[in-house]
């Protein structure tokens, strides 16, 4: 960016001596001088017609400029036209460069936005999956808490100990009775 501005300044600086050279060439070369005189006379006639038209006066006979004034005026017009063309070209070039940079920047921003949107959608999908897992774990925790509460309730009421002791006594009676039956069967046989 700085190099572009330096180049613009350089071109403007070089354009001024070129325009001065155009002025001197207009005075030295016959064709160039004739072109400058013709340009200056046309500009002068147009200016006088516009001025008289604005003031509401009719345009009478317009005296032509002297050759020296015409050469100077034409050479100045050419030099100013050259400087204007250079300045306009630089402005258009800068406008084009800025538009191109903005377009590139806009494309970069669009690309980054697309990446961010895809990342957000991926994160949303992961969040949904994690939420589903969390709900499953929550249900599992609720089931385990319910079972633990039932176990604690049974053990605090003494029911589990009674049930375990009842099972042992029942198994003990059953084994004595089965051994008696086994002995009775042996006697009969």
TrEMBL record:
The keyword Isomerase does not apply. GO terms for biological process: regulation of lipid metabolic process. Transmembrane segments: none annotated. Residues 165-189 are annotated as: Disordered. InterPro entries: OPA3-like (IPR010754). Residues 99-133 form a coiled coil. The keyword Manganese does not apply. Residues 177-189 have a biased composition (Basic and acidic residues). Keywords: Coiled coil. Pfam families: OPA3. One of its GO terms (cellular component) is mitochondrion. It comes from the Eukaryota. PANTHER family: OPTIC ATROPHY 3 PROTEIN (PTHR12499:SF0), OPTIC ATROPHY 3 PROTEIN OPA3 (PTHR12499). Belongs to the OPA3 family. This is OPA3-domain-containing protein. It comes from Collybiopsis confluens.
């Amino acid at each position: 960016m700085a190099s572009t501005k330096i180049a613009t300044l350089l071109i403007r600086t070089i354009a001024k001596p070129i325009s001065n050279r155009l002025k001197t060439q207009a005075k030295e070369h016959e064709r160039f001088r004739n072109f400058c005189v013709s340009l200056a006379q046309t500009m002068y006639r147009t200016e006088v017609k516009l001025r008289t038209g604005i003031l509401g006066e009719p345009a009478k006979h317009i005296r032509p400029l002297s050759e020296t004034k015409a050469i100077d005026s034409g050479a100045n017009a050419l030099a100013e036209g050259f400087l204007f063309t250079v300045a306009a070209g630089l402005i258009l070039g800068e406008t084009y460069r800025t538009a191109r940079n903005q377009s590139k920047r806009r494309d970069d921003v669009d690309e980054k936005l697309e990446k961010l949107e895809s990342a957000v959608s991926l994160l949303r999908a992961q969040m949904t999956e994690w939420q589903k897992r969390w709900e499953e774990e929550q249900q599992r925790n609720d089931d385990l808490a319910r079972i633990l509460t039932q176990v604690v309730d049974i053990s605090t009421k003494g029911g589990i100990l009674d049930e375990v002791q009842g099972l042992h006594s029942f198994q003990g009676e059953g084994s004595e009775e089965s051994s008696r039956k086994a002995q009775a069967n042996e006697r009969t046989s």
